[in-house]
Specification:
Elements: H1 8-23, E1 25-27, H2 28-35, H3 39-51, E2 55-61, E3 69-74, E4 80-86, E5 91-97, E6 102-108, H4 116-132, E7 140-147, E8 150-151, E9 158-160, H5 172-178, E10 182-186, H6 187-198, E11 205-210, E12 214-220, E13 223-225, H7 261-265, H8 270-279, H9 283-307, E14 310-314, H10 323-336, E15 347-349, H11 356-367
Parallel strand pairs: 4-7, 7-10, 11-14, 14-15
Antiparallel strand pairs: 1-3, 2-3, 4-5, 5-6, 8-9, 11-12, 12-13
Helix pairs in contact: 1-3, 2-3, 4-5, 6-11, 8-9, 9-10
Bound molecules: zinc ion.
């Protein structure tokens, strides 16, 4: 959307749009009342927003005492963005709308390779996906790529990739072929962004990705916290063990080495592992689960002690958690604690449990189409030549 800057007309149009984002459906008389703008002015803004495809008529609303009035709401399909989630063994693609929902999804059997050929094949997969979904190109705002690599705040470059090599990965062919901006996002921060958008009750929190690899992201004042150099929240490299296990980061006994999928599942799928665990017949599954939770809760205790923010469990394994598991993790953390916190819950399961990273990496493009006062998350920042924090 155009920058309203100091243009009063644009500012008022954004106030109308922000109210529709925040409240869902409102009639013109309600918008007039809430903004203090006259009905003719509201009519002008609504016509502009309708011409831009951003709003659509909704239900008739019964106003107290007055005549029923037609409501208007955001048209979520008015703007779309693409999420590309690069995995070691596949590619997950999705199209996300202004409501933060993945309206189309596709898993592609394309194992990642750190080669220029892989980067050259990416645009073809995305183009076929868009064609099959019949996505109008004019509605697309950009492509977010996410992978197991830490990126800079602006999403322009990878700053750490200890899990997968990325020296030859190049997003430029995708941007050139689609004619769209492309940004990169750490998969854990992307998943946390999806949670932040779709779980509006979160102000501050620690997002924990219980996935192939353990990961963390910090949420502070409705924003993802990057820290001074971009690595804030990486609690998976807390050194807590004593068994000399090698971490992909090159150090020994990081929490990751005890709380990765490999450490827990030993080659089983999460579904098979948890089916065996719930049946309760195999002591090996129970012991591995106890060990996993024991180390995870030790790590989360340190995080809780330092930050005292709600702990949100997301990622592949969070899909398998039952309420009793979440309560157990909380009790294990609290058992370590010096202080008492009453019966207020400190651990919860994420709201977005499927395709969170693919959705989350697309969202900053959509945030840019929403007036700043109603944005669920931040839009991509402009490149900063002199970052300070
Ligand atoms: Zn490590």
């Amino acid at each position: 959307m155009t920058d309203p800057g100091c243009d009063p007309k644009a500012q008022n149009r954004d106030r109308v749009l922000a109210l529709l984002f925040a409240q869902g459906a409102l009639s013109k008389p309600q918008l007039s009342q809430l903004t203090g703008l006259s009905m003719p002015t509201i009519n002008t803004h609504m016509r502009d927003l309708s011409d831009a495809g951003l709003i659509e008529p909704g239900e008739m609303l019964n106003s107290s005492g007055g005549r029923p009035a037609l409501s208007y709401r955001i048209n979520p399909a008015a703007r779309l963005a693409i999420g590309v989630d690069i995995h070691r063994d596949r590619l997950n693609l999705c199209v996300v709308d202004l409501a933060g929902q993945a309206v189309h999804f596709r898993a592609v059997d394309e194992p990642y390779a750190d080669t220029s050929e892989y980067s050259s094949r990416l645009p073809g997969h995305v183009e076929r996906f868009l064609q099959d979904c019949a996505i109008p190109r004019g509605r697309l705002l950009g492509v977010g790529i996410t992978m197991q690599a830490v990126t800079d705040r602006e999403g322009l470059r990878i700053i750490y990739s200890g899990i997968v090599p990325t020296a030859h990965f190049d997003p430029a062919p995708l941007s050139e072929r689609l004619g769209l901006p492309v940004r990169l996002c750490h998969d854990v921060k992307a998943a946390a962004q999806a949670e932040l958008w779709l779980n509006p009750g979160i102000t501050n929190g620690v997002y924990v990705a219980m996935s192939e690899h353990l990961g963390g992201a910090l949420i502070k004042s409705h924003r993802i916290e990057h820290g001074r150099f971009g690595y804030a929240g990486s609690f998976e490299h807390l050194t807590l063990g004593h068994e000399g296990r090698m971490c992909y980061c090159g150090r020994q006994d990081c929490l990751e080495t005890y709380c990765s999928n490999e450490a827990l599942l030993r080659g089983e799928t999460p579904e098979a592992f948890f089916a065996a665990l719930r049946e309760g017949g195999d002591p090996s599954h129970m012991r591995r689960w106890d060990d996993y939770l024991g180390m995870l809760s030790r790590g989360l205790y340190q995080v809780w002690l330092l930050l005292e923010r709600r702990i949100i469990l997301g990622g592949e394994l969070a899909c398998m958690l039952e309420d009793e598991d979440v309560a157990r993790i909380e009790q294990m953390i609290l058992r370590y604690c010096t202080f008492t916190y009453g019966d207020r819950g400190i651990v919860e399961r994420a709201v977005v449990l499927r395709h969170a990273a693919a959705i989350g990496t697309a969202l900053p493009f959509l945030a840019a189409a929403i007036p700043e006062q109603a944005r669920p998350i931040e839009a991509w920042p402009a490149a900063d030549p002199n970052p300070t924090n």
